[in-house]
Amino acid sequence: MKLASLALAMLCFSLLAATGAWADSTNFMYTASGNTFTWQLPTSPAPTAGNFQNGYFFELDNISFKENGVSMVGSFDFYNAIGDGGGFDLIVGGSTLLIDAYGLQQVYTGWESAPTFQNGSYSFLDLSGSPAYGKLKVSSTVPEPSALSLLAIGLVAGMALLAFKKN
Questions:
Q1: Portion of the chain with pLDDT greater than 90, in percent
Q2: Contact residues for 29 (Cβ-Cβ < 8 A; gap 6+)
Q3: Which pLDDT score, from 0 to 100, does residue 66 have?
Q4: Beta bridge mates, 132
């Protein structure tokens, strides 16, 4: 009976994890030359297989974003030019460069095979089209601790009720 309760608890936690109830994400807003781009990524994304080089860059393919409210899909390359800062590119259709941003800071930490985005506001020189300065705002969203506490209390109460009924 205790094993059944444990299995039920594991199933509930697995379902919550699979639906992303505990997954945190990072919101991005980039403005340059009168254009606004917005997108959302996991705070610790999984780079496209084979498209990263530790100490230099990582790529994320098939990412949904909006340019001035219009939905599109593209590939993002985030990079760290060691000693020179970092930047990112946005490419659509395999070859059209929408953003080509360079700055003295990078928006992630850790190895490029397992990066973690950093909250903050960043300035970049955008070389796509005519050079202009762009601003990137990065902000993470995480589940509220009170919501997780209520969920945990509900799971424990449910398991206790289940164990009480079986005895």
A1: 47
A2: 36, 37, 38, 136, 137
A3: 97
A4: 126
